[in-house]
Amino acid sequence: MNIKPYDAWVIARLLCGEHVNGEMDAASEPVKRIGKRLIDLPLEGRNGAFEGGLASLKDGNAVFLAVADQDPQAPPPPIETTGEGDKTRCVVMRRASDIEPLTVEWLWRDRLPLGMLSMFAGDPKQGKSFVTVALAAAISRGAPLPHGDVPEGPRSVVLLSAEDDAARTIVPRLKSAGAILSRVHILEAVKLPNGSETLPSLAADIDRIAEAVERLGDCRLVVIDPITAYLGGVDDHRNAELRGVLSPLKAMAERLNVAVVLVTHLNKGAGTNGKHRVTGSIAYVGACRANFLFARDREDQSGRTVLMLANGCNLAGDIPTLAYRIEDRGEGPAIEWNAEPVPITADEALQADLEDHREHDREEARECDEWLRDALASGRVDAKGLIAIGRSIGFSEDQLKRAKKKDWSNLDSGRKPNGSGLVLVASRRFFRPRRGSRCRVATFKGRGFSSKSAKGAAPCTLAPFAPFGNSVRPSRKPEPAPPCFPIPEKTTKHDNTNR
Predict the structure, then answer these.
(1) How many CB atoms lie within 10 A of CB 358?
(2) Mean pLDDT across the chain, nearest whole number?
(3) Is the overall model pTM greater than 0.70, yes or no?
(4) How much of the chain is in helix, strand and coil states, percent to nearest 5?
(5) How would you write 374-392 as a 3-class SS string?
(6) Residues with Cβ within 8 Å of residue 459, at least 6 apart in sequence
């Protein structure tokens, strides 16, 4: 008889006269039969009857020792059950009454909970990595965090950074922030059996990472920057795959009681819901108990102030928005936090950002329209050459194509139907076909005309579109485009790097 820990615990309670209530229902069938016999006996005779029954079993001594090892007053061991097909997997289940409630511990009050995952999300160059370095420096020396409590003392930190060089970037920033460098550990790679090194993978190396963190003994913060570099090829847009990576990481945080901060970017969407702006699957926001979004403060005309906005945290109430700037006081750049919170939410900041982007796009579109209209004022020009010049002074090809739909009447695309003449425009509403028989049908069909209209269209009798006046129909033999044409320069070149 091979007895399981839960079965041995049930028998131990029966032998001591403890109530089993519903515990017997979860026991195995042999133990249920033994239990029914013991319940019918008086307490004084249960031990003798049980030992007498064990005498007839080949492994009775092992069963006796297993029962003797169980404490009938202790909570029950996990219930192990196996299916008929797979004997290697078992279900672990506990009653809620046997689980001791725990209060949430904070590394940073209301912002970074211990034993859980947190998320920092924002566009590049917003200072997210600077913030993680500032946190690491404060924790390493036991200094208080912004608007937070004084920590319990100096503790260790583990950094996983795939974007910043340790010697040129991370360590200088740590020194500038006043960190105790001996307490900050940079996990750079894992060594393969062939001696080579590779970036750690949360999918394959989570056990090795957990062992390294546990060996420190006093680690309280683990930073993974960016999380997408450590997924080991897992597509973070697939919810199930991503949760398969985040679940073991969450278990590591719980077991070691460390705060794990994941750093990532925002997607290119234009919505105002911060939870949907985090790149990848929504599983990031769901798995992380504290989420924060980083965005520029639109009220700061210099554009240097960054907001740290709460983007979903079900462990605390309303979390004030913090603001900071990156300043260099002679010892290197470092974070300087504003003394007072900023009264703005993540959704409000995204709405303001969206409105600014739309106004910026409208202004650039107006400039592109004016530039293109001036370029076409002198006559027909080559399309590819004009696009190349427009791109060289700061307009994108998409902006030029959108402007094309408004005023592209004198642009020579280089296509010559039936070997003669010029196709003047690149949009169907700018064509005015005449009747004729020498036109190549495919040329006009490719422009959006029906076969009937294309067959009746004469070559080179297209009237250019004049958006600010009456259309003037050219002669049947238009003059060739001049070899050189004046192109007005763009007056203002926008910098789109931060968009």
Answers:
(1) 11
(2) 77
(3) no
(4) 35, 15, 45
(5) HHCCCCCEEHHHHHHHHHH
(6) 417, 418, 420, 421, 436, 438, 439, 440
pLDDT tens track for 78-132: 776 554 555 566 788 888 888 889 899 999 999 999 999 999 999 888 899 999 9
**Taking the CB of residue 61, how many other CB atoms lie within 10 A of it?**
11
Question: What tokens does 3 get?
Answer: 């007895």
Using a 10 angstrom Cβ sphere, with 0-12 exposed, 13-18 middle and 19 or more buried, the burial of residue 395 is buried
The CATH superfamily holding the domain 106-344 is P-loop containing nucleotide triphosphate hydrolases (3.40.50.300)
Residue 211, phi then psi, degrees to nearest 5: -65, -40
- Span 463-499, pLDDT tens digits: 343 333 443 444 444 444 444 444 455 555 444 444 4
Q: How far apart are CA 231 and CA 421, in angstroms?
A: 58
**Token pair 């909570």 in the structure block, residue:** 75
> What is the C-alpha R_g of the chain?
36
Domain boundaries, the chain: 5-98, 106-344, 353-455
